[in-house]
Amino acid sequence: MKSIKPRDTLRKRFIAVESDTLVIETIQTVDKQGQSPSGTVPVSRLRILKLKGTWRANDYNELCFEVTLRKGPPETYTFKGSWKLNNNQQIEYTSEDGRDTLTFKGYWNISAANRLVYIFEGSSTSRFEFKVQLESPTLYPKKSQIRYRIGAGIRQSRRSAASQILILYGEWKFGRNLGLVFQMDYGQGKVRQIEFGAEVTFGHNKVIFALKNELDEPLGITITMTHKFLESFDAEAFIRLKFRQSEQSEQAIEVGITIPF
Q1: I need a labelling partner for 3 at 20 to 30 A (CA). Which of 28, 32, 86, 227 fits?
Q2: pLDDT tens digits, residue range 14-58?
Q3: CA 99/CA 27 separation, integer angstroms
Q4: How far is CA 190 from CA 91, 118, 121, 145, 169, in A?
Q5: Cα separation of 254 and 261, whole Å?
Q6: Segments in the chain below pLDDT 70
Q7: Is 8 exposed, middle or buried (0-12, 13-18, 19+ CB in 10 A)?
Q8: What is the DSSP letter of 7?
Q9: Residue of 230, 231, 213 lying closest to 221 (CA atoms)
Q10: Domain that includes residue 221, residue range
Q11: Is 234 within a domain?
Q12: pTM for this structure?
C-alpha cells in the first residue's frame, strides 16, 4: 500500500514594486488532520510581504533587489526574466515562467558615455544603471529618438541575441543657456526632460551640438541641425545663437548644463 506523505508546499509570486520596496505574495499549503479518506485535509495560508531595500542593476544588466536586513549582509533577489519598455517608456519585467509582471515607475537620465540610468519615482537610492552602447553617435532632431544597444538584461530568452535595441522617444528643444533638452512623455500627463550642456560648432549650413553631462564630460552624442531646421525649430533661439556666434573669435562656444531630476 502506497504511503501518503504530509504536504507542506510554498508558492511565491512577485506582485508589485513600490519605492524601495518589493511586494511578495506567498501561499503555503499544509496537510492537517481532518475528516477525509486520507485522514488529512489541505489548508492554504496567504501572506503579503513588503520587503524594504534597494533596486539596482548588476553587471549583466539584470534587475536586482537588495533586501535590507537588521543583521548580516543584504539578501539579493536577481530577476532573470526579460524586461522591456512599455508604451509609457517605463521598465516592464516578465518572469521566465511568464507568471509575474512588474512595472517600475521612474524616469530616464543619461549620466555618462555608454551609461543609461533609470531613476525610481519617489526614491533617493534605487536606480538601474545600465551598460549600453549608442547605436549611432550622430542624432538628428527630426527623428525624436535616442537608440541604444543593450546587453543581456533585456534579452527575451537566454538563447536570444546577445543584445537588443532600446529606444527612448522624446522631443528636442532648446534649454537654458542654449543647451539642448530632450523632453520625454511618460503617459498620464507626466513629462520629464533631460537637459544637456554642449559644445556648439558651426559648419556649412549646419550647427553641431556635442552633448555633455552635468560634470561637463562628453557623452559621445552629437545633434546635427541644419540652418533651415533651426529656423523652423525655434527662430528666437536661432537668432540668439547666431548673435553669440558673431561675438566669438572661434567657431565653437560652450553652453551650460543642468539635469533636473
Answers
A1: 28
A2: 889 988 999 998 887 766 655 555 556 667 778 888 999 999 999
A3: 15
A4: 15, 15, 11, 18, 14
A5: 22
A6: 1-10, 30-42, 152-162, 176-178, 233-261
A7: exposed
A8: P
A9: 213
A10: 78-255
A11: yes
A12: 0.79
